[in-house]
Specification:
Number of strands of chain B: 5
Strand order of the largest sheet of chain B: 1-2-3-4-5
Distance between the termini of chain B: 45 Å
Order of helices and strands of chain A: EHHEEHEEHEHHEEHEEHEE
Helix content of chain A: 25-40%
Oligomer: heterodimer
Largest interface: A-B, 35 and 26 residues
Radius of gyration of chain B: 13 Å
Largest sheet of chain A: 5 strands, antiparallel
Radius of gyration of chain A: 19 Å
Number of strands of chain A: 12
């Protein structure tokens, strides 16, 4: 089928409507020639983005949920928007699903970005290749692992919850114990809390990857000198420890692509 | 294309094991039914197998309930395992793979193997 240009969808942000969006976008992607594994991944990422809106965006009533999907070169770009309160940390929900949702989007999409903030609603933009690698089979989990998650978001209060969720899934993937997972999240919270002044253009950029049981977090590009300031000035009050004590390795990298803080954390070998 | 119908059923295998059959698409919208089913079976003090062989879609709220079910069964001294056969829906296999759920929960390729794993966990 040619000539399918795109899709715009608006509907109340209720749980039952998410299936509508899922099927609408999957239908569009199939029409554009996306292969079945790609469509399966697309259904997951669209569902997770919409569920975030359903759960987080509006306090009482079902506010609007808007979806835009269109071809952009060889990719399908899907934008999920709400006009709600923005993604906020909610310590009391106890919902594990929200710790899995955004990392799933990170792992299964070819790229994603979150923008917005308090009072401005939230917009999640996701990209999926329409025909990955020609006739090659779809990416395996190992390939997805190697690709890691590239995250960009406005500096501010979005950074901590989003980063914590992404780190969590990589920690789970690395078979971290609950304690070690907490360490990884504490590290990221500390970076998030101190990082506002350290990113150029008010955009926090973080790359997260996991390999052979080690989670790697690459924070940046940072403004010049910020890496050392982060490294030197940061203590984590909850455990009265420095970053160096929590991480297995932490250092500042300076290269053509700017200054980055690189952290590696792994599960210690069991001593018994 | 009409969305496949969604159903959550229970088969009581014997006095110590039950299978939750998850069919069709499941997300936050049906998660409460799944949660209730888990709670009921935990109340009966039986080990649980969740069969995803006929599930066409599961989202993170269902994955979270698998983790919850696993934890709660463990705390009650009961077994918990999930059956994901090779011919399960590609989307279901992908989310389980990519979230690393295999590292946390016994995931087997047939209902029988999952039942065996759940019985071993309980013993």
């Amino acid at each position: 089928v040619t000539g399918v240009r795109g899709l715009e969808l608006g509907l109340p942000a209720s749980a039952e409507n998410v299936a509508v969006v899922r099927h609408a976008v999957a239908g569009l992607a199939e029409a554009m020639g996306m292969d079945p594994p790609g469509v399966a991944d697309l259904k997951t990422i669209v569902t997770e983005a919409c569920m975030n809106v359903v759960i987080h965006a509006y306090e009482d009533d079902d506010g609007p949920l808007s979806i835009e999907a269109h071809r952009d070169g060889e990719e399908l770009e899907v934008i999920v928007r709400d006009q709600g309160a923005g993604i906020r940390p909610r310590a009391d929900t106890g919902r594990q699903s929200l710790r899995l949702g955004l990392p799933l989007i990170a792992a299964l999409s070819s790229g994603f970005a979150i923008s917005g903030g308090p009072g401005r609603g939230t917009e999640v933009t996701m990209r999926m290749e329409l025909s990955p690698n020609g006739d090659e089979p779809a990416a395996t989990a190992a390939q997805l692992d190697a690709a890691g998650a590239v995250v960009a978001m406005p500096t501010g209060e979005l950074v901590a919850p989003v980063l914590a969720r992404i780190i969590s899934i990589y920690a789970v993937r690395a078979n971290f114990s609950v304690d070690r997972l907490s360490d990884a999240v504490l590290l990221c919270d500390a970076i998030s809390a101190h990082a506002d002044d350290h990113f150029p253009e008010e955009t926090a950029r973080v790359f997260v990857d996991e390999q052979d049981g080690t989670v790697m977090v690459r924070v940046g590009p940072l403004v010049p000198g910020a890496g050392d300031r982060l490294l030197g000035g940061m203590r984590i009050p909850e455990i009265d420890a420095s970053l160096e004590r929590l991480a297995d390795e932490i250092h500042v990298e300076r290269g053509d692509d700017g200054e980055h803080l690189v952290i590696r954390i792994k599960q210690p070998a069991f001593s018994d | 294309v009409i969305a496949p119908s969604s159903r959550i059923g229970v088969e009581r295998v014997d006095s110590v094991l039950a299978v939750i059959e998850v069919e069709g698409e499941h997300d936050l919208n049906t998660a409460a039914v799944f949660r209730e089913t888990l709670t009921d079976l935990l109340g009966e003090k039986v080990s649980i197998v969740v069969d995803l062989g006929h599930a066409s879609f599961v989202d993170s709220s269902i994955l979270a309930l698998l983790l919850e079910g696993h934890r709660e069964c463990g705390e009650a001294g009961l077994g918990f395992a999930v059956s994901v056969p090779d011919d399960a829906a590609v989307g279901v296999r992908r989310v389980i793979e990519v979230t690393g759920l295999k590292g946390a929960i016994a995931i087997r390729r047939s209902r029988d193997q999952a039942a065996e794993a759940a019985r071993v966990e309980a013993s």
